[in-house]
């Protein structure tokens, strides 16, 4: 059974940083792609970043380029999202999602993923 568990969210001041983690179980270590999504209150879910099976391929939404960094440690079955220079508009629930194979150009679409975590909340406020 595939499970994803996010952690690392919290309340942060504007300009601060966070590292979100997504621990994946039920997949062999390098046999899945992962996407990070976020959903702010009253808004649609937005794909922010995704990473390929071995970590060499990544993609970012324009809104987060230069501030978000996705990475993975396959030995730990964990995918990270490092977020810097946080803005109030980054406030959202952040979710990770996994799929065995993804068309990488479409990896920001939630419909591409089979498995989802429960989310972790990020609030950016002074």
Question: How do the helices and strands line up, and which of them pair or pack?
Answer:
Elements: E1 3-7, E2 10-12, E3 18-25, E4 33-39, E5 46-51, E6 58-60, E7 68-73, E8 78-83, E9 92-99, E10 115-116, E11 120-124
Parallel strand pairs: 2-11
Antiparallel strand pairs: 1-3, 3-8, 4-5, 4-9, 5-6, 7-8, 9-10, 9-11
Q: How would you characterize this protein structure?
A:
With 126 residues, this protein is an all-beta fold. 0% of the residues lie in helices and 47% in strands. The protein has strands at residues 3-7, 10-12, 18-25, 33-39, 46-51, 58-60, 68-73, 78-83, 92-99, 115-116, 120-124. The strands form two sheets. Strands 2, 4, 5, 6, 9, 10 and 11 form a seven-stranded mixed sheet that branches. A four-stranded antiparallel sheet has the order 1-3-8-7, with no helix packed on it. A hairpin with a 6-residue loop joins strand 5 (46-51) and strand 6 (58-60). The protein is globular, with a radius of gyration of 13 Å. The protein starts with a strand and ends with a strand. 32% of the residues are buried.
Can you give keywords for this protein?
11 strands, seven-stranded mixed sheet, mainly beta, 0% helix
Give the % helix: under 10%
Query: Any idea what the radius of gyration is?
Result: 13 Å
Helix/sheet category: mainly beta
Question: Any idea what the shape is?
Answer: globular
- Outline the low-pLDDT stretches: none
Cα end-to-end separation: 40 Å
Q: Note the run of SSEs as H and E.
A: EEEEEEEEEEE
Instruction: Give the total of beta strands.
Output: 11
**What oligomerization state is this entry in?**
single chain
Largest sheet: 7 strands, mixed
DSSP strand (E) fraction?
over 45%
What is the residue-averaged pLDDT? 94
Distinct helical segment count: 0
């Amino acid at each position: 059974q595939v499970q994803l568990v996010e952690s690392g969210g919290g309340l942060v001041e504007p300009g601060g940083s966070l590292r979100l983690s997504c621990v994946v179980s039920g997949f062999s270590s390098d046999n899945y792609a992962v996407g990070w999504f976020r959903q702010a209150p009253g808004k649609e879910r937005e794909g922010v970043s995704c990473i390929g099976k071995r970590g060499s391929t990544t993609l970012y939404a324009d809104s987060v380029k230069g501030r978000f960094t996705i990475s993975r440690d396959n030995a730990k079955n964990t995918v990270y999202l490092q977020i810097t220079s946080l803005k109030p508009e980054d406030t959202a629930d952040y979710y990770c999602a996994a799929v065995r194979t993804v068309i990488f150009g479409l990896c920001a679409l939630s419909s591409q993923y089979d498995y989802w975590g429960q989310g972790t909340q990020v609030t950016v406020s002074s």
